[in-house]
């Protein structure tokens, strides 16, 4: 017990043990808790990966101390403890998957080794090696031939050939001499392992092993006779697996694959029943109740139903390192523990963050369950090889509410929406009954409006009725401002040449108006040369000669000398004259 | 309690009855300890995990004990607090070989000491650092360090190493408990005796 500091988790966990130099390098798939000696005290079984190339060990912890160690021959891909028979005393067997084999340990002693059936070997490859053995071809030719087989064959090459192809030229001869006598075998490799209860859902019922392989297959193995009970194929190699149900009744295998998809296998078919395509690759897969929670590389946690329908998605503050379920049946609690790269472990129930545990190092494996005699024990190993044990307090209560900052609680209170009126109901009924006809009528009217608008637009363009001129030789823009209260108004026209660099010359402005209502001081004005880009104000005065409050439109034309049609037109709605004419 | 009972109590003719609460985590050896303290002819051969609680009675030289042997399983630990009020002494049993759960023991002990029925009371607490025979057991000093027993200032307490299976260390603890309880009892009796005497003097004066 080297550390007793509280971990900033709101006092929900007791720090039972922390050994920063335990030398445990492992992942969640290689950790399990089981009553290995049948005395009611659960032990921690860990498949230690060592340095990754040596020092692989099967370690068993009791309390705070290492109880036993067994050397493993190969890197463990997964570890499960399960009951393989009904013999008394009920002592579970430990299965360690590594390479193409499953090593079984009983009473912490090696008990049985099961090897997956080897795969079909490419016949061409076999022939080539046969020739090499008989000395008909030299290693260089062998390499060329294997290279060509590798490119076009539909059955992949064996590991031996692939290693041969990766060698430098000077090592070829030696390699052939060493290996040519042995027959070629193609073995698949186990990527993940889990257990499936055979026929009863009891805690100590006999289980089958479920194995995912690099050859994109899922095997269900009988634990008594070690025969393959069922074989299912996937579109890609599986990486993580969750199994639920019973083999004889109904089961469901949720598999995360290397192509970034999640497939759901059922009892009846040997092909996936449902598929979930994820936006990014999965790094953790945990089933909580009937939902599947997936942690992705885009720092998100997503919830799916068991039919693959997406329920929710939350964004996490850091990349996920590992995930594990937290199941506490005595209190009816189910959640998921997510280890993050920022040295935190988050506990979520659905998408609600319930607790945050700060750890001194990045957590690489999490296991929650009964350890020793304590039901709510959380075991974590860290990147630096540390072992951490925390115990959930007896009196702890998890709030239903999300402890992460988010929308206020008031947002989820239902508003008192008034009841539906008869009119609303009638309308809805009408819409439901004659929805197609209504849609058609609407579409027809919409088309008519569009047609009318287009017609008016074409007409305006043709007769230069717009205050914009799009002609190439004189691109002009004009807007008009009327100032004053009346009866005398100032009319200012802002004319702009929108051409890139060409000036416009020989323009004039003329007005068309009701001479009974208005008098314009300069009804015809010449416009000076227009430099591109500048805005030229052209002003004149309009007097309203009528005192009855009648208004009219004044039309402004910009004309080019020697042409009868205007370049552009503007309609000015004159305001009401509020003063009286003096004369 | 009638006057005669009281009188016999003061005169030491009758043994005083004390209620003792036996607490501790599951598998710490509470029932085994209680079983060892009972007379040899009433001892049980096999100890099974206690469900809820069980009541045991036995006598020592001067006291008559009624022990409430509580179950230590986490689901029954919420029962403990209901018996705090009526107890005159506490026996707290610790599995000194269970290093991992020492923190749970401390948590339960702190909850117990901070309970409103216990906090202000000068109730004697006897700790048994049990399972001393096991190889990986911690010493009683180490156990008291880990549980921070030195922080208990307002209650008489005592820790002794024990091996309940063979009965080692139990008598030492019980002797301490008996001594402390008797001392408290005597102090109590002295004050009541004085009150009684005063009353007699008062009545005498009234009579005059």
TrEMBL record, chain A:
Domain Bardet-Biedl syndrome 1 N-terminal, first and last residues per copy: 13-266
Residue span(s) of domain Bardet-Biedl syndrome 1 protein GAE = 476-578
Does the record bear DNA-binding in its keywords?
no
- Name any one GO molecular function: patched binding
Q: Which UniProt keywords apply?
A: Acetylation, Cell membrane, Cell projection, Cilium, Cilium biogenesis/degradation, Cytoplasm, Cytoskeleton, Membrane, Olfaction, Protein transport, Sensory transduction, Transport, Vision
Give GO BP annotations, semicolon-separated.
Answer: non-motile cilium assembly; protein localization to cilium; protein transport; retina homeostasis; sensory perception of smell; visual perception
* Keyword Protein transport attached: yes
Question: Which residues does UniProt assign to the signal peptide?
Answer: none
Q: State the InterPro entries in the record.
A: BBS1 (IPR028784), BBS1_N (IPR032728), GAE_BBS1 (IPR056419), Quinoprotein_ADH-like_sf (IPR011047)
Cellular compartment(s): Cell projection, Cilium membrane; Cytoplasm, Cytoskeleton, Microtubule organizing center, Centrosome, Centriolar satellite
Q: Which GO terms describe its cellular component?
A: axoneme; BBSome; centriolar satellite; centrosome; ciliary membrane
Outline the subunit composition. Part of BBSome complex, that contains BBS1, BBS2, BBS4, BBS5, BBS7, BBS8/TTC8, BBS9 and BBIP10. Interacts with the C-terminus of RAB3IP. Interacts with CCDC28B and ALDOB. Interacts with PKD1.
Q: Which protein are we looking at?
A: BBSome complex member BBS1
Organism, by scientific name, is: Oryzias latipes
Automatic annotation (TrEMBL), chain B:
Q: Where does Mg(2+) bind?
A: 31, 50
Q: Which InterPro entries match?
A: Arl6 (IPR041839), P-loop_NTPase (IPR027417), Small_GTP-bd (IPR005225), Small_GTPase_ARF (IPR024156), Small_GTPase_ARF/SAR (IPR006689)
Give the family, as the similarity comment puts it. Answer: Belongs to the small GTPase superfamily. Arf family.
Q: Which GO terms describe its biological process?
A: cilium assembly; intracellular protein transport; protein localization to cilium; vesicle-mediated transport
Q: What is its main location?
A: membrane
Any GO CC annotation of this UniProt entry: ciliary membrane
One Gene Ontology term of the molecular function aspect: metal ion binding
Spell out the CDD domains in the cross-references. Answer: Arl6
Gene encoding it? LOC101165359
Q: Which domain of life is it from?
A: Eukaryota
Protein name, per record:
ADP-ribosylation factor-like protein 6
Its record classes its membrane topology as: Peripheral membrane protein
Please indicate if the UniProt record lists Membrane as a keyword: yes
User: What are the UniProt keywords, alphabetically?
Assistant: Cell membrane, Cell projection, Cilium biogenesis/degradation, Cytoplasm, Cytoskeleton, GTP-binding, Lipoprotein, Magnesium, Membrane, Metal-binding, Myristate, Nucleotide-binding
Residues binding GTP, per UniProt: 24-31, 72, 130-133
| Organism of origin | Oryzias latipes (Japanese rice fish)
Where in the cell?
Cell projection, Cilium membrane; Cytoplasm, Cytoskeleton, Cilium axoneme; Cytoplasm, Cytoskeleton, Cilium basal body
């Amino acid at each position: 017990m080297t550390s007793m500091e509280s971990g900033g988790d709101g006092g929900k966990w007791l720090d039972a043990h922390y050994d920063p130099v335990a030398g445990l390098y492992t992942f969640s798939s290689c950790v399990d808790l089981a009553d290995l000696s049948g005395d009611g005290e659960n032990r921690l079984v860990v498949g230690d990966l060592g340095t990754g190339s040596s020092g692989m060990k099967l370690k068993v912890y009791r309390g705070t101390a290492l109880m036993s160690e067994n050397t493993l021959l190969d890197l463990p891909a997964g570890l499960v403890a399960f009951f393989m028979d009904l013999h008394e005393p009920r002592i579970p067997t430990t299965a360690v998957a590594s390479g193409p084999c499953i090593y079984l340990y009983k009473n912490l002693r090696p008990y049985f080794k099961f090897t997956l059936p080897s795969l079909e070997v490419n016949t061409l490859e076999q022939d080539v090696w046969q020739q090499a053995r008989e000395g008909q071809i030299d290693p260089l030719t062998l390499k060329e031939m294997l290279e060509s087989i590798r490119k076009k064959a539909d059955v992949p090459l064996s590991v031996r050939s692939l290693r041969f192809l990766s060698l430098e030229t000077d090592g070829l001869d030696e390699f052939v001499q060493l290996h040519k006598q042995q027959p070629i075998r193609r073995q698949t490799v186990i990527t993940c392992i889990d257990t499936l209860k055979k026929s009863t859902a009891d805690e100590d019922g006999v289980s089958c092993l479920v194995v995912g392989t690099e050859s994109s297959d899922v095997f269900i193995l009988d634990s008594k006779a070690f025969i393959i009970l069922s074989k299912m194929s996937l579109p890609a190699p599986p990486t993580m697996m969750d199994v639920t149900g019973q083999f004889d009744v109904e089961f469901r295998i949720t598999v995360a694959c290397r192509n970034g998809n999640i497939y759901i296998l059922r009892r009846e078919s040997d092909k996936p029943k449902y598929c979930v395509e994820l936006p990014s690759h999965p790094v953790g897969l945990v089933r909580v109740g009937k939902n599947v929670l997936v942690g992705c590389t885009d720092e998100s946690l997503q919830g799916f139903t068991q039919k693959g329908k997406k329920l929710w998605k939350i964004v996490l503050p850091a990349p996920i390192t590992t995930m594990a379920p937290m199941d506490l049946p005595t209190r009816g609690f189910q959640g998921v523990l997510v280890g993050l790269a920022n040295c935190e472990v988050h506990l979520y129930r659905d998408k609600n963050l319930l607790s945050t545990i700060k750890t001194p190092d990045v957590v690489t494996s999490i296991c929650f369950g009964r350890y020793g005699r304590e039901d709510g024990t959380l075991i974590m190993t860290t990147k630096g090889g540390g072992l951490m044990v925390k115990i959930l307090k007896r009196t702890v209560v998890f709030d239903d509410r999300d402890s992460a900052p988010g929308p206020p609680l008031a947002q989820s209170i239902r508003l008192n929406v008034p009841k539906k009126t008869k009119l609303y109901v009638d309308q809805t009924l009408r819409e439901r009954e004659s929805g197609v006809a209504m849609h058609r009528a609407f579409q027809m009217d919409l088309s008519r409006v569009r047609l009318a608008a287009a017609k008016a637009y074409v007409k305006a363009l043709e007769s230069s009725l717009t205050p914009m001129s799009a002609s190439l030789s004189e691109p002009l823009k004009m807007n008009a401002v009327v100032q004053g209260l009346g009866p005398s108004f100032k009319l200012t026209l802002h004319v702009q040449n929108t051409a890139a660099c060409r000036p416009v010359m020989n323009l004039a402005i003329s007005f068309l108006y009701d001479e009974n209502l208005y008098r314009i001081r300069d009804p015809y004005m010449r416009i000076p040369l227009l430099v591109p880009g500048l805005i030229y104000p052209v002003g004149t005065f309009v007097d309203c000669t009528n005192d009855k409050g009648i208004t009219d439109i004044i039309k402004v034309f910009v004309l080019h000398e020697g042409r009868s049609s205007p370049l552009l037109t503007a309609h000015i709605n004159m305001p009401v004259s509020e003063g009286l004419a003096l004369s | 309690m009638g006057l005669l009972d009281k009188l016999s109590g003061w005169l030491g003719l009758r043994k005083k009855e004390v209620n003792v609460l036996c607490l501790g985590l599951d598998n710490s050896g509470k029932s085994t300890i209680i079983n060892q303290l009972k007379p040899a002819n009433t001892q049980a051969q096999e100890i099974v995990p206690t469900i809820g609680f069980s009541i045991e009675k036995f006598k020592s030289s001067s006291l008559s004990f009624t022990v409430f042997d509580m179950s230590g399983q986490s689901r029954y630990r919420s029962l403990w607090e209901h018996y705090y009020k009526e107890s005159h002494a506490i026996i707290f049993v610790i599995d000194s070989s269970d290093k991992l759960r020492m923190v749970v023991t401390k948590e339960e002990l702190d909850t117990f000491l901070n309970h409103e029925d216990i906090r202000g009371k000068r109730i004697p607490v006897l700790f048994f650092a049990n399972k001393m025979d096991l190889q990986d057991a911690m010493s009683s000093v180490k156990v008291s360090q880990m549980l921070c027993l030195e922080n208990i200032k307002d209650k008489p307490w005592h820790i002794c190493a024990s091996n309940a299976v063979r009965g080692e260390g139990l008598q030492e603890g019980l002797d301490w408990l008996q001594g402390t309880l008797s001392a408290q009892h005597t102090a109590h009796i002295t004050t009541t005796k004085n009150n009684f005497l005063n009353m007699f003097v008062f009545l005498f004066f009234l009579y005059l």
